[in-house]
Fold each of these.
Amino acid sequence: AQTVTQSQPEMSVQEAETVTLSCTYDTSESDYYLFWYKQPPSRQMILVIRQEAYKQQNATENRFSVNFQKAAKSFSLKISDSQLGDAAMYFCAYRRGMNRDDKIIFGKGTRLHILP
Amino acid sequence: KAGVTQTPRYLIKTRGQQVTLSCSPISGHRSVSWYQQTPGQGLQFLFEYFSETQRNKGNFPGRFSGRQFSNSRSEMNVSTLELGDSALYLCASAPQRGRPGETQYFGPGTRLLVL
């Protein structure tokens, strides 16, 4: 069965610094999607970034980028120039690409604190 | 467009009672998924509905059930509540199903406390 592991329950970073959140996953599939979702305190969860396994180029969305290492089954999120609004719980997620019936599997999350 | 809405936002129940939570997806979205979020287990998938039919189900007991109406609104029901059912219940909608890379749009959640 597929699993997603986030080994850092909590992290802190100084405002304006760069932080990297780790995520590893286990799958025997070759076609899948990986996601990072952000859940701010008392606010709705939103998609931060998505990566398709077939694409070698790492996805980037403004200050957010990923380091996708397919062979190592690693999918880390880098946040550059951290801002106070980045404080949130971050969830890494996996979804198999071929089967439309497959559900999204989430990691347990990393709570990110931004220090002013 | 209005986002995903969930009602009620907060709920307190006692053991043995039942509860119904409601989710209204973004207009035009036809897929609705439900998740249970707890500090210990993170987000766990409950079920997905599309075109009024349950398409997928997670590993939860039969006390957890749901349905979807013709306007895509969805409800989930938990019967015979247990203390361990205390959680944040999240609903997420998507335009269609069968597109694994599609964004899930989440609601604010219903926080259920079972005493």
Amino acid sequence: EDQVTQSPEALRLQEGESSSLNCSYTVSGLRGLFWYRQDPGKGPEFLFTLYSAGEEKEKERLKATLTKKESFLHITAPKPEDSATYLCAVRTGGSYIPTFGRGTSLIVHP
Amino acid sequence: EAGVAQSPRYKIIEKRQSVAFWCNPISGHATLYWYQQILGQGPKLLIQFQNNGVVDDSQLPKDRFSAERLKGVDSTLKIQPAKLEDSAVYLCASSLAGGDTEAFFGQGTRLTVV
């Protein structure tokens, strides 16, 4: 059975304190790994799609990387407005069903 | 560009009652998804439509849940009868195509079953 595990469950940072969120997966035939940001009371907002090991994508203070077993979302010099829950999801070949992790709740203190 | 619209935003019903949620996707998006997100968990796909046809509904509890997509545009998700464990946020999303394309989510409907 496909599994997606995100860690840590919660993370508190000071403004400017860089860190990384982890998404590990055990799936066969990965077709894509997706990162989303979700603010309280809102739907997830798409951030990145990664397709193959070694791929990296960046957007402002966020950088997503992918290996054969996990993905990292690096947050450089975070600001309070980066506070949100970050979700990852994987889609495998032959299945239309994306499997989401439980998310990492990030709080950035000023 | 208008986003995905959902209504209502909140709904409180008693168990065994019926409830319906409505979704209007982004114009031109062929693929529409309904997700269930229980508090503290990631979204779980219930059903995926491509235009007005069902692509996957393997995780939809068909004894009580039903969904349709009228004319390949708007969609409704119905629960009849509701159970306590159906309390969750129901999210609608749409994308230009299925597969790996980016999905845009609505704000969701928060359902509380008492």
